[in-house]
Design a protein that fits this description.
By secondary structure, this protein is an alpha/beta fold. The protein has nine helices and seven strands; from the N terminus they run βαβαβαβαβαβααβαα. A seven-stranded parallel β-sheet has the order 3-2-1-4-5-6-7, sandwiched between helices. The termini are far apart.
Length: 256
């Protein structure tokens, strides 16, 4: 593992990738601040892990995020790693998806990242150390039909994190933006319950441990973009070189 710090803060730690990341770091001896809006989820994450402290939090509330970060640093210690994994994932055609749901997606998936970065990064940069890991998606690089609202939030995450990295390059903090394909976590249930693109059936969801392993490799190599999964990077390249061909195939697969 590329991480040698003592304290990690993880949003979305009540389930899925956030939970797995929290438990993996706890097993490695790291003190983990697990943040999530779901208190039952946090309790399950922390069960059996004495080094995981839970902090119920709505990441869309900027003031609450600031207060929680202060509470973490005063009770556990300076934060050495931040992982922003809080997200929701309903799919659907844009003109059929409820407007309030689209705004909620952006508030959580993108707004949560903004709030957490504002609350944690200044002190990490002052200390000239630490890791800042944001979770985007391949849909934040390569959108498809029925995923527009979710993909838009992940495009925002990718852009924000990329500019954030370049504005603070060589200041001691390592940045990684993770863009995985579909991952086998409960988050996929939200998509399946709303609208599931046929295109995503071409490749089965990858194991979440593959994503976490890829993050450590990217940190070790000093790579900003982390694209785990077979064919993921090739899809990224094709999207940029031949977008018209890609969209033609998308329409063919989806049938509209």
């Amino acid at each position: 593992m590329a991480f040698t710090g003592k304290v990690a803060l993880i949003t979305g730690a009540g389930s899925g990738m956030g939970r797995l990341a929290a438990q993996r770091l706890a097993k490695a001896g790291v003190s983990v601040a697990a943040l999530d809006i779901s208190e039952p989820g946090l309790a399950e994450t922390a069960n059996g892990h004495e080094s995981i402290r839970t902090f119920p939090l709505d990441v869309t509330n900027a003031q609450a995020v600031q207060e929680t970060v202060l509470a973490v640093e005063s009770s556990i210690g300076p934060i050495d790693r931040v992982i922003t994994a809080a997200a929701i994932m309903p799919f659907g055609k844009l003109l059929e998806q409820p407007t309030e749901q689209i705004h909620k997606l952006m508030a959580i998936n993108y707004g949560g990242l903004v709030n957490v970065s504002k609350a944690t990064l200044p002190k990490m940069l002052e200390r000239k150390s630490g890791d800042f890991i944001s979770f985007s998606s391949m849909l934040g690089q390569m959108p498809t039909l029925l995923t527009g609202a979710y993909a838009a939030t992940k495009f925002a995450v990718s852009c924000y994190t990329e500019v954030l990295y370049h504005e603070n390059k060589d200041r001691g903090v390592r940045f990684v933006c993770v863009c995985p394909p579909a991952v086998a976590t409960p988050l996929l249930d939200q998509a399946h319950a709303t609208a599931w693109p046929k295109l995503l059936n071409d490749n089965p969801p990858i194991d979440p441990t593959e994503v976490l392993d890829a993050i450590e490799i990217s940190l070790d190599k000093g790579q900003f973009w982390c694209m785990p999964g077979k064919g993921t990077r090739m899809g990224y390249i094709m999207r940029r070189l031949i977008p018209g061909v890609v969209w033609k195939e998308v329409h063919k697969v989806e049938g509209f």
